[in-house]
Write a structure and sequence with these properties.
43% of the residues lie in helices and 14% in strands. By secondary structure, the protein is of the alpha/beta class. It has an eight-stranded parallel sheet. The structure holds glyoxylic acid (GLV) and magnesium ion (MG). Glyoxylic acid (GLV) is lined by residues 60, 154, 156, 180-183, 195, 246-247.
């Protein structure tokens, strides 16, 4: 077993010191683009101004024939642009693919200073992280990087979900996780063909009405992802990492997308993927706390200035625990306001 004292030591001579804390920055949407697509690549600097995180995708949705073009395109975009306070991420190909080694080697050594986070798909267990962790440390040392690259895992295999806590604990490089509902559904042999969201067959039905036993019985669709999101949020937050919802494939159903995003916001996620420019505004709206909640939370903080004791605010009991809930809301609002003038004005900071 490795000594806990070594956890924050670099895994290669000359690699930067691992981070003690995960940087918390506005992360409402991870906007995906395909760097092999010249039209998308051209628009990337412009889109970067509208999002919290811009991600160059190399994995699924990039055709096999375009894998190398995606890598070259991403390296060029990273090299030629300064994205300011927008984070730059990339999703590389999975560890068992023929592209992983070149993806990670080229990106870390050629544009490692520009990249905040590498997203690793199809993570199965701690062994995947240990391999990537040491390899990245060697490449960071070779490139002489000053700050460590962080790792974000996609939770999208049954084995990965079974091992979610050990994955979260595997390295100080773990920045967070996203749910990958499409691969996860396939891996679990779930019988949905949708990318995220609910399913009309996954429901509970009201009991028969005793007055009218043959009458119609209402049904309530349930959230297929609730269990996995709950496990992911706890595993991430327990180590100071950030949980995200992943993709919502029905671009033509913005209302259901908003509902799916909001369920995960309420459960603790900080953001979601946007696969299409129309989903940027949805994520921004959902993952920025509602202004009326922020106003309420500020009132509770003012009513309990040192965060202890008990008071009534508008007939509702407030104590140390509800003060902490309100502080979560106000701290997030302040974080968003620090980047987004529109929300700064809305929250009155
Ligand atoms: C995302 O990668 C997914 O498989 O849903
Ligand atoms: Mg996937």
């Amino acid at each position: 077993m490795r000594s806990p004292r070594d956890f924050f030591r670099p895994l290669a001579l000359g690699a930067p010191e691992p981070l003690r804390d995960i940087p918390v920055r506005p992360s409402r949407m991870i906007h995906f683009f395909d760097p092999s697509n010249p039209r998308m690549a051209e628009k990337a600097p412009d889109i970067a101004r509208k999002v919290d995180i811009l991600l160059g995708n190399m994995e699924d949705a990039v055709a096999i024939d375009n894998k190398e073009a995606a890598r070259e395109g991403f390296i060029k975009i990273a090299r030629d642009n300064d994205f300011g306070d927008t984070q730059l991420w990339t999703r590389i190909n999975s560890l068992d693919s023929p592209w992983f080694l070149d993806d990670v080697t080229r990106i870390v050594t050629e544009v490692g200073e520009k990249v905040d986070v590498i997203m690793l798909p199809k993570v199965q267990g701690a062994w995947d992280i240990h391999y990537a962790d040491q390899l990245i440390a060697q490449l960071e040392a070779r490139a002489g990087l000053s700050k460590p690259i962080q790792l974000h895992c996609i939770l999208e295999t049954a084995l990965g979900v079974a091992n979610v806590e050990e994955i979260a604990n595997a390295s100080p490089r773990i920045q967070g996780m996203s749910l990958g509902p499409a691969d996860l559904a396939a891996s679990r042999r779930m019988k949905t063909t949708r990318i995220g969201g609910g399913h009309p067959g996954y429901l509970v039905r009201n009991d028969p009405d005793p007055e009218n036993p043959e009458g119609p019985r209402g049904t309530h669709q349930q959230d297929l992802w609730h269990y996995t999101i709950g496990r992911m949020v706890d595993a991430c937050v327990a180590v100071g990492a950030l949980p995200f919802y992943g993709p919502f494939g029905a671009i033509d159903d913005p209302l259901a997308c908003e509902d799916q995003f909001r369920n995960t916001f309420l459960m603790g996620c900080v953001g979601a993927w946007s696969l299409h420019p129309s989903q940027i505004a949805i994520a921004k709206n959902v993952f920025s706390p509602p202004a009326d909640e922020v106003v309420w939370a500020k009132r509770v903080l003012e009513a309990l200035p040192d965060g202890s004791g008990a008071v009534m605010v508008d007939g509702k009991m407030q104590d140390d625990a509800s003060w902490k809930q309100c502080k979560v809301m106000v701290d997030l609002a302040k974080l968003i306001a620090s980047k987004d003038p529109e929300y700064k004005a809305l929250y009155g900071f």
